[in-house]
UniProtKB/TrEMBL annotation:
<keyword id="KW-0456">Lyase</keyword>
<feature type="active site" description="Proton donor/acceptor">
    <location>
        <position position="71"/>
    </location>
</feature>
<dbReference type="Pfam" id="PF02142">
    <property type="entry name" value="MGS"/>
</dbReference>
<dbReference type="InterPro" id="IPR036914">
    <property type="entry name" value="MGS-like_dom_sf"/>
</dbReference>
<feature type="binding site">
    <location>
        <begin position="65"/>
        <end position="66"/>
    </location>
    <ligand>
        <name>substrate</name>
    </ligand>
</feature>
<feature type="binding site">
    <location>
        <position position="98"/>
    </location>
    <ligand>
        <name>substrate</name>
    </ligand>
</feature>
<dbReference type="GO" id="GO:0008929">
    <property type="term" value="F:methylglyoxal synthase activity"/>
</dbReference>
<protein>
    <recommendedName>
        <fullName>Methylglyoxal synthase</fullName>
        <ecNumber>4.2.3.3</ecNumber>
    </recommendedName>
</protein>
<dbReference type="GO" id="GO:0019242">
    <property type="term" value="P:methylglyoxal biosynthetic process"/>
</dbReference>
<dbReference type="GO" id="GO:0005829">
    <property type="term" value="C:cytosol"/>
</dbReference>
<feature type="binding site">
    <location>
        <position position="19"/>
    </location>
    <ligand>
        <name>substrate</name>
    </ligand>
</feature>
<feature type="domain" description="MGS-like">
    <location>
        <begin position="6"/>
        <end position="154"/>
    </location>
</feature>
<feature type="binding site">
    <location>
        <begin position="45"/>
        <end position="48"/>
    </location>
    <ligand>
        <name>substrate</name>
    </ligand>
</feature>
<dbReference type="InterPro" id="IPR018148">
    <property type="entry name" value="Methylglyoxal_synth_AS"/>
</dbReference>
<comment type="similarity">
    <text>Belongs to the methylglyoxal synthase family.</text>
</comment>
<dbReference type="InterPro" id="IPR004363">
    <property type="entry name" value="Methylgl_synth"/>
</dbReference>
<comment type="function">
    <text>Catalyzes the formation of methylglyoxal from dihydroxyacetone phosphate.</text>
</comment>
Amino acid sequence: MKMIQQALPAKKHIALVAHDGRKHALKSWCEKHLDVLKQHSLYGTGTTGHLIEQATHLPVHKLLSGPMGGDQQLGALIAEHDIHLLIFFWDPLASQPHDPDVKALLRLAAVWNIPVACNESSADMILSSSLMNTPMMRDMPDYQGYLNERLGQQ
């Protein structure tokens, strides 16, 4: 598939997700980075979104909880280019009943080439980047070109 370039905007839409065993760590991380996060739009799955909103007093677009479809809602927002950065504090030591949904979410983030952080260190590095508050070009699949090619062959 051919690739095209698209800019991620200066004001990013940031998805915040955490497994149960990592929710407290994500809440603490958000409190630590309040000054940066308030410059962007925040999205969160169920309980995580509520927890972050209560702790930071920042508005969070809250979706369903992950196991109830929130991971899939975020995946759809990524595919529609409405999420520009995924911060997902996952718990590598605990089995997750909705693991296929989690893998699908991470797969979509990779397909659409958005930055992903899965722990505090990688999230700190992304937030400290000079690209965090400026537009950033990214390569992404030319899906419309793909459709045009496929439909033209029939």
